[in-house]
């Protein structure tokens, strides 16, 4: 059997697979949607770059807490950079915080653009009519209500990695349990960031105090 040729990130991208990079820990070449970028600042410190905008050579790790923890305790960054570097404590926690903030910022942007519907009844009607692009369901919501809404989502992607308090914060309210984001670039960006965030946190524990939200609390797209 002939040996399998190794595919470089550049070759994979040229073949139409989209931007791909190699994880420093696992060695796997994968789409950047599943990776987190880091750079080394002038002081030699490892810096998280979740928006992938900072100048300098990028170092990529799979968007998983255990992978980043492994890179933090060894000399992974130093070997890749071929220099002495400083890895800040709690690097995986910092990544989770930045990804969470990124998700909430994007949701808030979608809200201000009039692309958000929130509130159980409004979300239910939107999904039944087939108008849902992305369903955001609070991961700590009562399982029964969450499953009912999820069943209406049909082929729409569902994100359940954020809590009701976090969703509410993004919308400028105390909490939000069910949110629909209209199809488009913003909903795609939210889905990407939420998928990366999922590698750093378990699903929030459902509690009896976070259940179905009243439609009086609902936020109709463009009403703010």
Describe the overall structure:
It is built from eight helices and nine strands. It is an alpha+beta fold. The strands form three sheets. The chain has a four-stranded mixed beta sheet with strand order 6-9-7-8, with helices on both faces. Strands 4-3-5 form a three-stranded antiparallel beta sheet. Strands 1-2 form a two-stranded antiparallel sheet. A hairpin with a 6-residue loop joins strand 1 and strand 2. Helix 2 (65-73) crosses helix 4, helix 4 packs across helix 7 (164-171) and helix 4 runs antiparallel to helix 8 (185-197). The longest helix has 22 residues, at 91-112. The relative contact order is 0.15. The model is unreliable at 1-16, 205-212, 214-218 and 220-224 (pLDDT under 50).
Q: What's the layout of helices and strands?
A:
Blueprint: H1 9-17, E1 20-22, E2 29-31, E3 35-40, E4 46-48, E5 59-62, H2 65-73, H3 76-81, H4 91-112, E6 116-118, H5 120-128, E7 134-137, H6 143-152, E8 158-159, H7 164-171, E9 178-181, H8 185-197
Parallel strand pairs: 7-8
Antiparallel strand pairs: 1-2, 3-4, 3-5, 6-9, 7-9
